[in-house]
Recover the amino acids of this structure.
């Protein structure tokens, strides 16, 4: 019985892995196809990568995606960090109310948030475009940053900041010399989540963007009605970039730990 259970578990594991990774392999493989066919691989070619870089609209969507993701990550991380620290010093009632509001914004379906932001911009007569897209991304990224930092603040010893003040630090010096270094893992995690959420967003972006302003998600959506293998090439480059980032992110701590042990 034990052996058969192990076999079933392994089969289940391999099926899950296949479900997740076969579509990725398929996209990468057909990005090198020399024809437009998405079912028949007829030969190796870099044609779609060349056409991707020659496609001005696609290049603009990449530019807008990366620019908005970087700016939204920086702004939301700063605002989220300051908000989380301020909230940690507030009374219990305020913490509970703001905490519930913060959680509600994350649990709220994207389509509701998207429609709400669209109606807000319309009621204020704000023309949709780059600014509204950026503002929307900052708004929905802040709660994720706060959620990542809050547990670290709960683990933080309040006496550390008080000791820094007693030793002559100003409140600002105590903030960036004592508190921020202690919660840095939470800040980094929040920033990475914010970047991922912004880079990947489609629903909210679709409702708040304007003419001529597309990120990768909205551009791909507009291309699904016609065969465009350049999208496969774009997806493959994103996959490779993410893989490299993950390798670096996992390798750097290991290398740093080995160097620390050697010293």
């Amino acid at each position: 019985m034990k052996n058969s259970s192990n076999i079933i578990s392994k089969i289940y594991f391999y099926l899950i892995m296949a479900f997740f990774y076969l579509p990725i392999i398929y996209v990468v493989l057909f990005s090198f196809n020399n024809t437009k066919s998405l079912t028949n691989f007829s030969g190796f070619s870099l044609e779609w990568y060349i056409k991707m870089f020659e496609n001005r609209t696609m290049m603009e969507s990449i530019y807008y995606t990366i620019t908005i993701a970087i700016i939204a990550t920086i702004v939301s991380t700063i605002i989220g960090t300051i908000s989380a620290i301020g909230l940690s010093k507030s009374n219990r009632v305020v913490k509970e109310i703001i905490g519930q509001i913060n959680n509600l914004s994350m649990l709220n379906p994207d389509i509701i948030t998207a429609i709400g932001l669209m109606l807000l911009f319309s009621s204020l007569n704000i023309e949709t475009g780059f600014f509204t897209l950026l503002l929307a991304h900052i708004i929905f990224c802040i709660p994720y940053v706060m959620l990542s930092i809050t547990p670290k603040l709960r683990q933080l010893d309040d006496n550390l900041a008080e000791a820094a003040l007693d030793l002559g630090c100003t409140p600002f010096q105590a903030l960036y010399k004592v508190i921020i270094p202690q919660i840095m893992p939470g800040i980094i995690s929040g920033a990475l989540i914010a970047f991922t959420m912004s880079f990947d967003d489609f629903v909210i972006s679709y409702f708040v963007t304007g003419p001529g302003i597309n990120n990768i998600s909205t551009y791909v959506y507009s291309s699904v009605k016609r065969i465009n293998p350049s999208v496969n090439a774009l997806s493959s480059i994103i996959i490779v970039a993410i893989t490299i980032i993950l390798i670096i992110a996992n390798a750097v701590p290991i290398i740093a730990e080995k160097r620390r042990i050697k010293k």
